[in-house]
């Protein structure tokens, strides 16, 4: 809502206030401010010119050489190419060395050999938006009124010298979508009086509205519908003062009838619509009804629409002539041929309008106000004001009476509150008298009832319903800066993380300590990507109204998002990436409308994990690196009994390089290499991933991490190399060594794997380093030899190994 302080001053004195300070006051008290400005900012030496004569340019078929009076002793010669330039016009002239819109400087120059002393301007060249320029001047220069004085600056004629404050209205403060609403707000902030002009309609006594039209409307969807008729109207351009107020508010002037409806819309916040009465059917009935499914309708913008059942339409008793509260019909448009105007003012159901506006992609000034609410107390007054102005500007006559269907309740809403309640919430010490004064500043009625105040809230503030709303009003007007900055008094309770929160935070720290960077992906993806990498069965949750085709379904895994992140980086030459993400996936079970939210953790790596440097060699990402990160995570979290089982069950994973992860019988997730076909689709090289269900990990029994002091006695290390069958797993050998190594065996580490020509076919060589240590004494060779011999015996008996 763009508010002109000059216009606002007609209702409440504001011209003595600094524009920037007023804007700041509104922002701190009511709603945000998008900006404050004057349209003439940055422009200079732009004046009124009078075209004395013009003749065709000798070297052009569209240019004219004009002699223009700009208030100087001699006329200025200006070359102009506008198609609507004519002798006798008062025009906008940018003098030599002037500045116009777009920070453009105009200089004296030549156009095809003819000297031009400046430029005759269009409104667009002064910085006006294309959408607010009157259509008759959209492709040419703007013509000023005949009484404009040559040589004077044009800014006051065009309203460009007015202070404009762009108020950014929130949905709960739709009362500020009108000049009167802003006037009440400013008056409350500065404790000033609102003065509203009286509206008196002069009606013709010998003609009644009943002779022209009758109206019908369903009361549940149309609380009130009113119509006036103005006859003998001459449709033409509006006076410049109305045009300037409209384009300052961002609305294009059309003609004197339509412009009045938009003017009253801005003044009252009451949408109106003017119909050409002659286009109505012969029975002259205006009926508001629900549209028939598939009913055709052409709106003012020339667009065809196929209506749905539930859309609210205005009809002439037979066919639609308007889409209620949104836009009128092209057939009933007010044109230069219109002589009788049927003027509508109504209150329509906001929810119904919003559904239609959203489906048909209509967001008009009228629909926005009906959706958020309007002041039902001024429907009749706004209708009368518009009828009076149309009759005055169009030299017409207002027919006596108003055709009306339904009556709306305009009674004040009474809310009881105490000063003690307000002070308790705000932490202030306001007296009952001070509180009552604030309500009076807001224009509310106040009655004292002992220690209580009975506040009569007018219907123009439909956002106020309960006593908490009144507390907010007191806080706003009293000033948020004046409220004491004290903390509330309450009994403190120690806070701590829940086990789930602690697990999630620990998992994130472990991932980052392992060298992975955190990624945050969209919670919405495509249906196909949502179905990949599933840990559990479940149905997809699809949106009814997705923002785009790439965000239609709630994610059911984290890896799809991580792979998109990897592909995004690789496409931009960042080919060594290691990312993790912790977040929720959404699985919907049969018979449930709402999905279950499950905490997951996933990681993805491609390229080099470590680059080569003076300290070491490069480390590419591979299966064992991904598996090692998972092992480190689960071990640090205290998960015991973890096993890895080779699997080919995951369609998106490499069938020979993927393992499912179990803790006992509980399935936790998987780790492995992404399938080459999927990597080809994403244009990625070999990529290794894992995904875990953190909720299942949380439910497992954890091993407590108990501090163990470092032994002061030395450790003894022994190596053993074993030749075994190729199908024997490393983990089975390690389990056997640990089982038979005794209490002094502290560590078993595989440090070499060999398969080659020096071994028989079907064999492999595994070399282990065994570390023995006792916390209470120094081990002797006999202690270690006994344990070592037991290990060798067990390995030979169980796996038929050969100790090399």
UniProtKB/TrEMBL annotation:
E.C. number: 6.1.1.20
Spans traversing the lipid bilayer: none
Catalytic reaction annotation: tRNA(Phe) + L-phenylalanine + ATP = L-phenylalanyl-tRNA(Phe) + AMP + diphosphate + H(+)
CDD domains (alphabetical): PheRS_beta_core, tRNA_bind_bactPheRS
Localization (cell): Cytoplasm
GO biological process, any: phenylalanyl-tRNA aminoacylation
Cofactor: Mg(2+)
A matching Pfam family: tRNA_bind
Domain of life: Bacteria
A GO molecular-function descriptor: phenylalanine-tRNA ligase activity
GO cellular component entries: phenylalanine-tRNA ligase complex
Enzyme type, top EC level: ligase
Keywords associated with the record: Aminoacyl-tRNA synthetase, ATP-binding, Cytoplasm, Ligase, Magnesium, Metal-binding, Nucleotide-binding, Protein biosynthesis, RNA-binding, tRNA-binding
NCBIfam families the record matches: pheT_bact (TIGR00472), YtpR (NF045760)
Entry protein name: Phenylalanine--tRNA ligase beta subunit
Organism expressing this protein natively: Ligilactobacillus equi DPC 6820
């Amino acid at each position: 809502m763009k508010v002109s302080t000059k216009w606002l001053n007609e209702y409440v004195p504001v011209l003595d206030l600094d524009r920037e300070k007023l804007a700041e006051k509104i922002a701190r008290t009511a709603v945000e401010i998008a900006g404050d400005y004057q349209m003439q900012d940055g422009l200079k030496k732009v004046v009124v010119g009078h075209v004395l004569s013009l003749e065709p340019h000798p070297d052009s078929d569209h240019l004219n050489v004009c002699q223009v009076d700009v208030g100087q002793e001699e006329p200025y010669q200006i070359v102009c190419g506008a198609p609507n330039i004519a002798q006798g016009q008062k025009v906008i002239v940018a003098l030599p060395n002037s500045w116009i819109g777009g920070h453009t400087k105009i200089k004296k120059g030549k156009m095809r050999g003819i000297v031009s002393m400046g430029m005759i301007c269009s409104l667009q060249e002064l910085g006006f938006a294309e959408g607010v320029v009157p259509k008759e001047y959209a492709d040419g220069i703007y013509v000023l009124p005949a009484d404009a004085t040559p040589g004077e600056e044009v800014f006051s004629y065009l309203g460009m010298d007015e202070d404009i404050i762009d108020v950014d209205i929130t949905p709960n403060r739709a009362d500020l979508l009108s000049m009167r609403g802003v006037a009440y707000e400013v008056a409350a902030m500065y404790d000033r009086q609102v003065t509203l002009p009286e509206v008196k309609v002069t009606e013709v006594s010998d003609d009644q509205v009943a002779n022209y039209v009758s109206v019908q409307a369903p009361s549940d969807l149309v609380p009130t519908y009113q119509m006036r008729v103005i006859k003998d109207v001459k449709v033409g351009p509006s006076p410049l003062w109305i045009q300037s107020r409209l384009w300052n508010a961002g609305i294009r002037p059309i003609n004197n009838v339509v412009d009045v409806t938009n003017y009253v819309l801005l003044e009252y916040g009451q949408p109106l619509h003017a119909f050409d009465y002659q286009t109505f059917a012969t029975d002259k009935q205006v009926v508001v009804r629900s549209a028939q499914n598939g009913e055709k309708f052409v709106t003012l913008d020339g667009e065809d629409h196929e209506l749905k059942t539930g859309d609210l339409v205005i009809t002439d008793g037979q066919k639609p002539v308007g889409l209620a509260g949104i836009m009128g019909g092209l057939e009933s448009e007010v044109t230069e041929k219109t002589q009788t105007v049927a003027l509508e003012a109504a209150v329509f159901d906001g929810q119904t309008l919003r559904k239609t506006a959203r489906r048909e992609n209509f967001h008009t000034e009228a629909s926005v106000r009906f959706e958020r609410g309007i002041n039902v107390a001024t429907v009749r007054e706004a209708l009368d004001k518009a009828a009076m102005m149309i009759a005055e500007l169009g030299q017409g006559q207002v027919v006596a009476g108003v055709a009306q269907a339904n009556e709306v309740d305009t009674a004040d809403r009474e809310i009881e509150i105490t000063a003690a309640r307000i002070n308790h919430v705000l932490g202030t010490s306001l007296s009952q008298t001070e509180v009552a004064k604030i309500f009076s500043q807001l224009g509310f009625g106040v009655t004292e009832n002992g220690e209580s105040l009975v506040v009569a809230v007018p219907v123009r503030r439909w956002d106020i319903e309960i006593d908490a709303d009144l507390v907010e009003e007191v806080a706003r007007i009293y000033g948020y800066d004046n409220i004491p900055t004290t903390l509330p008094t309450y009994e403190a309770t120690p806070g701590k993380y829940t086990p789930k929160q602690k697990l999630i935070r620990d998992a994130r720290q472990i991932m980052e300590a392992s060298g992975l960077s955190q990624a945050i992906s969209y919670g919405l993806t495509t249906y196909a990507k949502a179905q990949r990498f599933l840990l559990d069965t479940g149905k997809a949750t699809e949106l009814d109204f997705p923002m785009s085709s790439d965000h239609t379904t709630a994610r059911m895994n984290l890896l799809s998002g991580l792979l998109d992140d990897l592909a995004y980086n690789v496409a931009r030459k960042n080919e060594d990436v290691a990312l993790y993400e912790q977040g929720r996936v959404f699985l919907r079970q049969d018979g449930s409308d709402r999905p279950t939210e499950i905490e997951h953790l996933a990681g993805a790596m491609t390229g080099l994990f470590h680059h080569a440097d003076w300290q070491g060699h490069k480390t590419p990402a591979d299966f064992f690196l991904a598996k090692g990160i998972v092992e480190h995570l689960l071990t640090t979290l205290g998960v015991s009994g973890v096993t890895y089982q080779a699997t080919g069950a995951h369609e998106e994973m490499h069938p020979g390089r993927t393992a499912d992860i179990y803790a006992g019988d509980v399935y936790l997730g998987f780790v492995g290499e992404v399938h080459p076909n999927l990597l080809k689709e994403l244009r990625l090289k070999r990529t290794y991933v894992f995904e875990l269900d953190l909720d299942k990990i949380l439910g497992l029994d954890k091993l407590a991490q108990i501090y163990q002091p470092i032994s002061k006695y030395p450790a003894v290390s022994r190596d053993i190399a074993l030749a075994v069958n190729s199908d024997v797993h490393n983990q089975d050998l390690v389990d056997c060594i640990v089982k038979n190594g005794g209490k002094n065996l502290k560590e078993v580490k595989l440090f070499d794997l060999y398969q080659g020509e020096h071994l028989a076919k079907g064999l492999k060589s595994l070399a282990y380093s065994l570390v023995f240590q006792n916390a209470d004494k120094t081990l002797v060779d006999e202690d270690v030899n006994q344990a070592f011999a037991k290990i060798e015996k067990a390995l030979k008996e169980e796996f038929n190994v050969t100790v090399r």
